[in-house]
Amino acid sequence: MTHPIYTDLEARTRSTFLALMWAFSYPGRIQTLPVGAAFESIAITLLDLETSYFTPDVSLSAHLATTGARALTPERAAYHFYPELTPAALHTLERANPGTMLYPDDGATLVIGAQLGSGETVTLTGAGIKTQQAMNIAGVPAEFWALRSQWHFPMGWDVYFTDGQQVLGLPRSTKISF
Predict the structure, then answer these.
(1) d(Cα 77, Cα 44) in Å, to the nearest integer?
(2) What is the CATH number of the domain that holds 147?
(3) Of 94, 171, 85, nearest to 128 (Cα)?
(4) Where would you tag: which of 24, 55, 81, 88 has the fewest CB atoms within 10 A of its CB?
(5) CB 51 within 8 A of CB 79
(6) Spatial distance between the Cα atoms of 96 and 84, rounded to a whole number of angstroms
(7) Does the global pTM surpass 0.85?
(8) pLDDT in tens, 113-170
């Protein structure tokens, strides 16, 4: 059996997709992205003509625009990209769509820069976690965790935290304790 030969971009996108898939399948376990800028790799993989995005970062916005996705307001964007959670970014993020009980899949997916493997220990439980999973994360303000906790599954945000070539998934179904 022969397999198609991937272009470099196709191979990178496939590797990124697999890392993102495994990050949500096993919340709290760090996955490795292919070499390259994490936000740009994730954007190329997730964004297309059918999707929308929001980012407060001007330079990242220019790259996201090349995907063909539409730039929308925080309330309407399907994907949000925050290289850093500043107080202004948190104020914007609180307007991200959490979905509804009828359409929880309308909830936004957030891609957030953080420092993985250091900082506060957070314990995760839920789907994809045998009993519990500990993760260490820094660069995520307490206000973010408070915003996330206001939603109850099935509503909420799916979150990817990135740090260099590492990505960690936090589906909306995952419960967090400190």
Answers:
(1) 16
(2) 3.40.50.11310
(3) 171
(4) 88
(5) yes
(6) 16
(7) yes
(8) 999 999 999 999 999 999 999 999 999 999 999 999 999 999 999 999 999 999 999 9
